[in-house]
Fold this sequence. Notes:
The protein has helices spanning 2-17, 57-61, 87-105, 172-189, 271-274, 354-361, 445-449, 520-523, and strands at 25-34, 37-41, 47-51, 68-79, 82-86, 108-117, 120-125, 128-133, 152-160, 167-170, 195-203, 207-211, 216-220, 241-250, 255-259, 280-289, 292-298, 301-306, 328-337, 342-346, 367-375, 379-383, 389-393, 415-424, 429-433, 455-464, 467-472, 476-481, 497-506, 511-515. The chain is of the alpha+beta class.
Amino acid sequence: MMEIKNNEMERLYAETFHRIEEGSILKGKVIAVKQEGVIVDIGYKADGFVPAEEFSPEEFSNLHEGTALEVYVDTMKYSNGMVNLSRKAANRIKAWDIIESAMGKGAALEGVISGKTKGGLSVDILGVTAFLPGSQIDVKVVKDMDSLISKRMLFKVLKLNNKRSNVIVSHRAVMEEERQKKKTETLEKLKEGVLLTGTVKNITDYGVFIDLGGLDGLLHISDISWGRITHPSEFFAVGDEIEVIVLKFDEEQKRVTLGYKQKKPDPWSTIDEKYPAGQKIKGNVVNITEYGVFIELEKGLEGLVHISEIDWLPKPKHPLKYLSIGETVEAVILKADKNDRRLSLSIKQLKPSPWELVSQRYSAGQHITGKVKSITDFGVFLGLPEGVDGLIHISDISWTKHIKHPSEVIRKGQKIDAVVLSIEPEKERIALGIKQLTSDPWLTDIPARFKLGDEVKSKVLRLTDFGIFVEIEDEVEGLIYTSEIVKAEEPLKEGDIVWTRIIKIDLEERKIGLSMKNVKKREE
């Protein structure tokens, strides 16, 4: 009887299974969870069995009675009245249906880049492994593919074979479609004067390319700031999101010229009213060059302090010796020119002029002491404490000696005494003298010491065509006229000592004439 009963049950199950089409995807509910798998009620008065390995450990642990599952009828073989089912096959078939539908509609699917493969990357889309060629990853060449692994992206299906074993996808197609969509939206908004937000795409020496949304615009370096700018990277970095204004749009060429500084009024337009000559200002040092210092008065507005306007010194030092970048300084406006967009400033004008101090502290006839700063052919420059130099002309070094070059009697760095001869502050001049420290010997000593007919010992200084210059008794120069020279066996040379006779004394011209003829001491 038992054997008849079992045979009857198998007959009933067989009749039921004949109504289920192999390869179908059925909806069922879990009625029991066992260690080796789950029993699923698939209707038709029949149950099926899904092995545990069809699930991930996490999925299997979350299964319980009543859990809804979609399963694939794997085979019509059955045992104990249950049909073999597959969860993975059901998911795969469903995924292929979705992929086929997306390809037909041109829709994008989300997937995860799962690894690298020859010529591109592999992508997991709903459990199906697809191939992403390297040329379809991005609109530009991707150098580091490893950085994309595990990233979730949108893809379009390019190709799908009939056997459902090979899928080729593209992320580039998604980007191009999105860019075209954005470009259309951007073109609808584009017109001169409109404000747009874009992303810095590339930076060059001459400007910045801004992605406005499917369309790039050029922000030229000259339209970034009203003030001085050396390179666009001073203001922007790739990836920055900035607001720009459309200056020009060539609809035919699809070229967009952008502006950034134009969002604010031009500070140079009112510069002559806002910064009149003589006004004192404060600003920050933003640039230092060999010829001067640039000071920012306000955003986009800079003025130049020329090197000559930093210090009262005749030869100012390099601007870096006075100021540093970022330092706050005071200056005075010299000239504001809005047409040439130039603002001239001065720092030294805020300090008293050293020549004003010189005119207050010195007067003609005053004795001073200073160090020799420099020596020239025409004289010596003496440094004064006020930072100016006084000139001792070569003619004011000695009353009696003929000096060919000041370096014969004075050396650089030497500390010497002098007397103030004249002061001309308006011409920035102060004349000094050394010989004026003593009385003029031509008015006192020389007339008393030397008389016509006196025989004097003379030292040859230099030989000329018109005579021989000599130094008389280490005191004063004289000239032996050519006609008064007595030729000797050996011609005279510099440094020789000879006896001469005074034949002329001209106090007004400060000259003494000599003769070598009829000199008793010479004859002796």
